[in-house]
Design goal:
Blueprint (H helix, E strand, L loop, with lengths): L1 H29 L5 H20 L4 H8 L6 H28 L1 H9 L5 H26 L3 H25 L5 H22 L9 H11 L2 H22 L2 H14 L3 H18 L5 H25 L1 H8 L11 H12 L6 H4 L3 H26 L1 H26 L6 H20 L7 H39 L10
Helix pairs in contact: 1-7, 1-12, 2-6, 2-10, 2-11, 3-4, 3-9, 4-6, 4-9, 6-7, 6-8, 7-8, 10-11, 10-17, 10-18, 11-15, 12-13, 13-15, 13-19, 13-20, 15-18, 17-18, 19-20
């Protein structure tokens, strides 16, 4: 499992690193063409797209994830995959019809101005195509077709970036170009994914299979809504309590903070299918504990880097009107990490306790909503970021505690606590240390020292000197003849 995870997560991570890298390259171009309120409109449409993806198809893709790997025959696997696809197409067909008819009301609800109605209509098309592309990509994950997943994702990324970049930066069509790019990318990536999954998708619909998947996924719909609220109520609250420009500033900070999720994407894409395939093995809990420590040894220094150098990052990638977003990057980077680490607590999903999962996310959503409404009037966008961090902490804590009851994993809790404490101290330094042009050089040196020392202690606490030497020796041993197979 460890060898397969290392191989798959590296491939997935490299794919998403390319995707995120291209997105970051576009940021300095977009920020010179688009206003903060334009970014605010993009973020509000993204909020709508997320809730649509979570609810319209009733999370049936999660049902495929649970039942497809355990299907007893190829005919059953085809029935699960095909029934899920046709259900998804039908659901989003109905959504597209009603969303188009009521596009004026939808525009006023999201952005408060009908001048964006043509953008909303484009966004509806983009949402539908992206949802179908996402379904096909998930199917490739459950089939463990890592290379095919990566190829189609790269096609999607390159086409989206090329079309959107040309239309926004060169042709000056505004944010409409962003959604033209998404439409083109989803069409190209979806076509490639169809090619790779064609043997699993047939013109058949088996109601019993669909019903079985929906019985698992339906409780995940309120869970998904809870996830949506926990992740996006910050933008909604900022929009109503502040301005669209503030939403844009927060969105820019969130984009850079989300870089930490790149590491998580590789693990998430590779680990979840492997857990479902191997959870019955006696060695899996121990493997998960070890994987979690290795993951944190990489993730905590990455979060610390974003936190310490948030000022410098914005000076490189954005224009002065976006610099005030620095204050939310340290807080949101920690939140982004916590919101995605639930995969290391798989007990609830393994035993199909989806109702408990739903309750966790509903609780997180309610707490995040209350905290946003309370803290934004006092602290502005920083208050919203803090509310999101508290909610993310609650979500991960509940997942971990309850998961341990159903599927115990032998975590080294004192080591984990010590490493997290060191990481938080370094992150707080990023908020406290001054940063201005006059003192940039000495402060940067001081921050770098904080980072190096903090990263050393985090890795030493999590792995120990013996395991560090073992890892280094393995890397040195396989580096000259790398063939993708690292021995335990």
């Amino acid at each position: 499992m460890l060898r397969q995870l290392l191989k798959d997560s590296t491939i997935y991570g490299a794919s998403h690193l390319l995707s995120q890298g291209i997105s970051l390259i576009l940021v300095p171009l977009y920020t010179r063409v688009l206003l903060p309120e334009d970014y605010g409109a993009i973020d509000m449409i993204a909020v709508f797209a997320t809730i649509t993806n979570l609810t319209v198809a009733l999370e049936i893709s999660q049902g495929i994830a649970r039942f497809y790997p355990e299907a007893k025959s190829e005919a059953d696997r085809i029935a699960y995959a095909s029934s899920g696809l046709w259900f998804t197409l039908g659901a989003f067909g109905v959504f597209a019809l009603f969303a188009s008819i009521f596009s004026d009301s939808l525009t006023l609800l999201l952005i408060d101005s009908l001048k964006w109605q043509h953008v909303i209509r484009l966004a509806i098309i983009a949402i539908v195509l992206n949802s179908i592309f996402s379904f096909l990509q998930n199917l490739l994950r459950w089939q463990l077709k890592v290379k095919n997943y990566v190829i189609s994702n790269i096609v999607f990324t390159l086409v989206t970036a090329a079309v959107a970049g040309f239309l926004v930066v060169v042709m000056k069509v505004g944010i409409a170009g962003v959604f033209y790019g998404q439409i083109a990318g989803a069409a190209a990536g979806g076509g490639m994914s169809c090619l790779f999954t064609r043997k699993s998708l047939k013109p058949v619909f088996v109601w019993n299979k669909c019903k079985e998947m929906l019985s698992f996924s339906l409780p995940l719909v309120p869970s998904g809504i809870g996830v949506f609220v926990a992740h996006y109520v910050d933008r909604i609250a900022i929009k109503h309590l502040m301005t669209m420009s503030d939403v844009g500033l927060y969105g820019i900070g969130f984009r850079f903070a989300a870089v930490v999720s790149l590491l998580m994407v590789g693990f998430n894409s590779a680990l979840t299918p492997l857990i479902y395939s191997n959870y019955k093995k006696a060695s899996t809990p121990g493997d998960l504990s070890r994987i979690f420590r290795y993951f944190l040894a990489a993730a905590i220094p990455m979060v610390a880097t974003l936190s310490l150098f948030s000022h410098e990052i914005l000076r490189i990638f954005a224009t002065p009107r976006y610099y005030s977003a620095w204050k939310v990057i340290p807080i949101l980077s920690v939140s982004s990490l916590l919101f995605t680490m639930y995969i290391f607590a798989p007990g609830l999903d393994i035993l199909k306790r989806t109702r408990i999962v739903a309750l966790i996310h509903v609780a997180a959503a309610l707490s995040n909503t209350f905290l946003n409404l309370t803290l934004i009037p006092v602290m502005g966008i920083a208050g919203s970021a803090l509310a999101t961090l508290i909610s993310a902490s609650l979500t991960f804590s509940l997942y971990m505690v309850l998961s341990q009851r159903y599927y115990p994993v032998p975590h080294k809790w004192l080591n984990l606590l010590g490493a997290v404490t060191v990481g938080l101290v370094v992150c707080l330094a990023g908020l406290i240390l001054p940063s201005n042009i006059e003192s940039a050089y000495p402060v940067t040196i001081l921050k770098s020292m904080f980072l190096v020392v903090g990263a050393f202690f985090v890795i030493w606490i999590l792995l120990g000197s013996g395991e560090i030497k073992l890892v280094v020796n393995r890397i040195l041993k396989v580096a000259p003849t790398w063939n993708g197979d690292i021995r335990k």
